[in-house]
Amino acid sequence: MPDKSAVLLHVCCAPCLAAVRTSLALARRDRHFPIAGLLFYNPNIHPLIEFRRREKAVRVYLERDPFPAEIVSEYGLRPFLGRLAVAGWPLDDRKKRCTECYRLRLEKTAETARSRNLAAISTTLLASREQDRNLVADVGREAAARFGVTFAEADLRLAEPEERSLRGIYRQQYCGCIFSEEERHRNDGKHRYKGNGIPHDGRIVRHQCFTKSESLSETLRGAPPIRPASASGEMNSPSASDADSGANGLRYP
Predict the structure, then answer these.
(1) What is the crossing angle of helices 94-115 and 178-185, to 10°?
(2) 138: pLDDT strictly greater than 60
């Protein structure tokens, strides 16, 4: 028989997991919202290095606050794009993209809960103030019903995570998918070229640029050729006659 009290909690990131743990402790809801295990499944996180950062952050957090967890380490770019393709590529409709993103993750959570004989699921997305809570709940109920489990809703925004629990742990700057990364940085100046050899951090980089009227051959004209070493191993000095002619007989322009 399914355990009707235990919840399989989908984990989106370490900061939200820490917030959930803090909120449940403050509300003394642990006995009413018992977490049987965690599932980190987030094919929406791009690019690959960002995915690895967030996976590692969850692993580091769980070393400090151990809890049974399944962490899916496979990079999920293709499943994510496949879901968007099935949905008709809603690239310019953020709500539709987010709906499919929530659905992909919560259906996997519900399927896993059923395979473990658990009767309920929930998600740390409910703790994020950056997410559409009502949309998450709607998709969560739909996904749970599809796999014969229930979706446990709770107000998980009661408290910020304890700073000491996240000390040194990576905290992301955007939701996850490459579209949200674009939205996050579209209007900022990060890594934009400022001109005049001055990058964004203010360091001056001096470099030579060729104008339209210049060429590499013009720049090199007059440079002495490099001659091969003599039998003794010493480099031969160029003679005056070598100024325009290399040791191999080729002439510079």
Answers:
(1) 140
(2) yes
